[in-house]
Amino acid sequence: MSPPLPGPLAHLAPLLGHYGYWAVGAVVLVEDFGVPAPGETILLAAGVYAGAGRLDVVAVAGIAFAAAIVGDNIGYLIGRVGGRAFVHRWGRYIFLTPKRFAAAEAFFGRHGGKIVTVARFVEGLRQANGIIAGTTGMRWRRFLAFNALGAALWVGLWVTLAYLVGDHITTVYDEIRRYQLYFLLAAAVLLAALVVRHLVRRRRA
Length: 205
Hints:
The chain is 78% helix and 0% strand. The chain has helices at residues 13-19, 21-32, 39-51, 57-90, 98-111, 113-118, 125-135, 140-165, 169-204. It is globular, with a radius of gyration of 18 Å.
């Protein structure tokens, strides 16, 4: 008997109940090379199932981690081979408009590996992460290392939390997302301050 899934996770019950681990792997994989899919949500749902004994938590985490790595590497290959022409022609279908791409590309150019890791936790950037890294010419080994780190943190956080708190996960998730927004805003302000300081020092020099 499958456990009930709380709130916004409920719509994934038929998918998980029927396909199990295959659903986790497939949804995470396609989301990670740009296809709009509920990758983070299915991690939470699978974690709840694992906590209720319906799935094995180690298998869920392992499959999700592998799918995240493969998905982002497909995105990286798309960006590397297709480049800007691909993004400008097809990007709008995966919500990667030229304006968003230009902003993300500039950000990648300045911060590289750190962004690949943090991008896992940012909606929109997570889906475009590999494509942008490939398009901007980031070295594959460097991308792979930081991408693996980000995938491990992302999968580990959400699967472990859902496994431990069960049907309270939506409340916990909403709280984390709320504070995550504050953290990202604070990081953006700090980054802007550092850029301004650098420009002022450069002008004085």
